[in-house]
Amino acid sequence: MTNKYSIGVDLGGTNLRVAAYVGGDGFLETISLPTRLSAGRDQVVRDMCEAVTALMRRDYGDRKLAGVTVGSPGPLELPLGILRNPPNLPGWDGFNLKEAITSTLGREIILENDANLAALAEQQLGAGNSHRISDLCVITLGTGVGNGLILGGKIWDGTNGMAGEAGHMVVRDTEDLLCACGGSGCLEQYASATGVMRMAHERLGEAAPSSAHDLALLARSGNEQARGIFDTVGEALAIALTALVNTLNLPLYLLGGGVCEAWDLFSPEMFQQLRRRSYVYRLTRPLVLDPVRLEAQKTYILKAQLGSAAGLLGACALGLKYQLSSANPVEEKFGD
Amino acid sequence: MTNKYSIGVDLGGTNLRVAAYVGGDGFLETISLPTRLSAGRDQVVRDMCEAVTALMRRDYGDRKLAGVTVGSPGPLELPLGILRNPPNLPGWDGFNLKEAITSTLGREIILENDANLAALAEQQLGAGNSHRISDLCVITLGTGVGNGLILGGKIWDGTNGMAGEAGHMVVRDTEDLLCACGGSGCLEQYASATGVMRMAHERLGEAAPSSAHDLALLARSGNEQARGIFDTVGEALAIALTALVNTLNLPLYLLGGGVCEAWDLFSPEMFQQLRRRSYVYRLTRPLVLDPVRLEAQKTYILKAQLGSAAGLLGACALGLKYQLSSANPVEEKFGD
């Protein structure tokens, strides 16, 4: 282990988290702030850079700063670093976030999509690491549906940073239910916490509980309509996973985010539909699930391991790969 | 250019084609045979190996055989080389094709999915080559819907050779129309020649023409029902492409196969639906299409260039990358 540390930033629509990191699955130090969207994007960038600078001035012994990585909600055009109509950062469309941070901070940074960083963390520090898997796909079922793809141990950004938008795959051929993305029938409308609550209001009316957590409790108590909503979640995920499994044939797909609290409710329908719909899954699914050691050449669909810190951990992990003297990520294996 | 040549095989359900190759987009010599499925799989393997041996015995001056690559219909489990319920090779389920060819021929071969080889050919010798693109996805609209994915200039096989089955992505949430794969609402049912003809019989009854080619003529003559079928083709492709564009963000997607004769009929609906459904496509689509030089960081959806010889060309091209002394493909760039 060399004497270096990194700084990671997780820019969320509600909270801004900054951490110093030397490796492993914990942080050296973290700073959490509210994301003051109402004060304007320049102020948010200044708040972020002040927190980063505060950590840069700490005395971490002889450790030298390797790199600073910022995770941002997408869509993010890379390598330029320009936001394109980000739903969680209203008013930031067309904002060159990378340039704003670089000029305020006075040093180069890496900017990445937060879902991609969460996927990198799962690969390097979570399920991918425990099972020595370098290719995986993470789908995060939160307020929206996030997605990150790691191929050969590296983030797959696509040709301009827009890969990993599986939340807007079409899983229903309806034209009725318009998604904020402009499409209709998107996965996000059926498998996000927002989608789950919309279905609860549609199907339960005034009897709908006030959160996805309470809806899960209602379903577990035997309420058929509540159970049916989680069947819909499972079916939507199965249709999206059929596309991913059949085209990419990866060894590991991880589901994370708050909706995964209801894994017991949606996963039976998800696996049943997946077995029926995806013959690649049928041919490659593990017959026995040993959670300690995964069989090679099988398709595993598991819960993500890292929880809500995954994005920040991924930012830190990517920052640590930076060479001290260079703004370019080096090809060395993370962690050495 | 070194003094070597390769032998490629395209094993189809109807025809067996074998070619000797030294580079470029043509062949040194080809042998075509019927695939004698009724004589049994061992006989087909013997026929294939006899044709390969015949080409190995030819006098190609001082050229040495670099490698032999066989393209087979899938699903094909790799690296083992075992067929898994291949719809175009009935009765071959569980057959270790690689072992059978290797032992009959007495030398190592590369075995690959034919759609993946066609995609490799498009990348190395077709549209990918003319536009210097190393990441692309090819979807072939033939009797079925084939698919191959090239990432970083290499075939993406997935964890056990089953990647590239986009024909069985779900594009309709119907349960009614069962696909041979066991699923329902698969792309193949709406965008293959078989699917087009099924829709023609459903919608036109006895007035249905006898081929997809004649249906296209009928549509071009103004028949509304015939036009509507190609709109359905376009919509199904748009839903599948939305998933691929949103998750992979590749610079190039190519559509090939016989149904592409009707490009003028299905592509307007395909592009319109894609603009609406995929915001990644909206953000990255080229505003001006200059077929000679593609803009970087845009998403292009074009017709494939190579036609029905693509699979055989890809087999030859991959074979040429083989080292003379080794059964392992080397990492050198094709063509040198």
What does this structure look like?
- 2 copies of one chain form a homodimer.
- Chain A is α/β, with parallel strands linked by helices.
- The first copy, chain A, has 2 domains: 4-117 and 309-320, Nucleotidyltransferase, domain 5 (2-Layer Sandwich); 131-305, 2-Layer Sandwich (Nucleotidyltransferase, domain 5), CATH 3.30.420.40.
- Chain A is built from 11 helices and 12 strands.
- Chain A has helices at residues 41-56, 97-105, 114-125, 127-130, 188-191, 193-204, 212-220, 224-248, 263-277, 279-284, 310-320; strands spanning 4-11, 15-21, 29-34, 64-72, 76-77, 82-83, 110-113, 136-141, 145-151, 154-155, 252-256, 300-303.
- In chain A, the strands form 3 sheets. In chain A, strands 3-2-1-4-7 form a 5-stranded mixed β-sheet, with helices on both faces.
- In chain A, β5 and β6 (82-83) form a beta hairpin.
- In chain A, α8 (224-248) packs across α9.
- The first copy, chain A, is globular.
- Residues 323-336 of chain A have low confidence and may be disordered.
- At the A-B interface, β9, α8 and α10 of A face β9, α8 and α10 of B.
